[in-house]
Amino acid sequence: MRLLRLPSGREIPVLGQGTWRMGEERTQRPAEIAALRLGLDLGMTLIDTAEMYGEGGAEEVVGEAIAGRRDEVFLVSKVYPHNATRRGTVEACKRSLKRLKTDYLDLYLLHWRGSVPLAETLEAFQLLKKAGDIRDYGVSNFDLDDMENAIALRGGDEIVTNQVLYNLMQRGIEWDLLPWCRDRSIPIMAYSPIEQAPREPGGMLQNPHLKAIAARHNATPTQVALAWLLHQKDIIAIPKASNPAHLRENRAALELTLTNEDLAELDLAFPPPHKKTTLAMR
Ligand code: NAP
User: Fold this and answer.
1) Which of 32, 163, 194 to mutate to test the pocket of ligand 1 (most atoms within 8 A of CB)?
2) Could you tell me if residue 63 is inside a domain?
């Protein structure tokens, strides 16, 4: 697995596994645990979860999936904005660690910006880091102005990533947020990297250009969409897949190298932004 260096110096796999919608139904849990374990076997050892997903259910699923394999895993979780006070963040983290059956997170993120002052959340993140409960911290769904506010605060200079919606259909961050992060060597974690696999006509994976490029490489449109993100050296992609065939397909996207001609065709089919847009969120 290709690794990328975070501003803290620690390394993170560039392709991981999402867990949104996991842990919601008890009957699905064995299949979800098996999927996450297969993902680990395939080298997708970055697992992204959050206290929000299944209201703790996804973290429990992850906890079972990584039992006995914690050392292999780069584990990411997120705190709800309404819990993100100085004390609330620390308590939420402890609850997450318990559900995940581990004693540290590799990365802890503020899920999105809420009404709690950022300074409080950053202070809590620093306390958690000093205590060894988390190795690194970052943010999610932060637009450029949020990032500017955050790095000006104490502890803001230790933010190692911003996890945002980024895929071929959602390229708004290329206007300002992505270059800003690039200038500061802060990698972006791209969520919903395959736009949640829309099946309806007009959906991303139905795009004729995407299909044609995939056909040229004997690959699938999903793989091209992931390869497009991953050809950018500072992007981390976290597709969610419960289906074993999807996991294998996603992992193989790392071996797909797009040509300059492919990239130009993708720019025509999915044009980059020509003005500032508000950060899109799911
Ligand atoms: P996604 O990864 O773009 O799409 C997931 C959907 O795609 C699932 O229905 C999955 O089906 C399907 N899929 C996966 N691989 C496929 C393949 N090779 N071919 C066809 N379909 C495939 O969307 P997402 O779950 O929204 O985003 C990924 C992760 O990012 C989340 O799980 C979560 O961890 C994180 N996220 C974070 C935020 C945030 O606010 N920070 C927001 C959204 C998501 P199966 O499950 O049936 O395989």
Assistant:
1) 194
2) yes
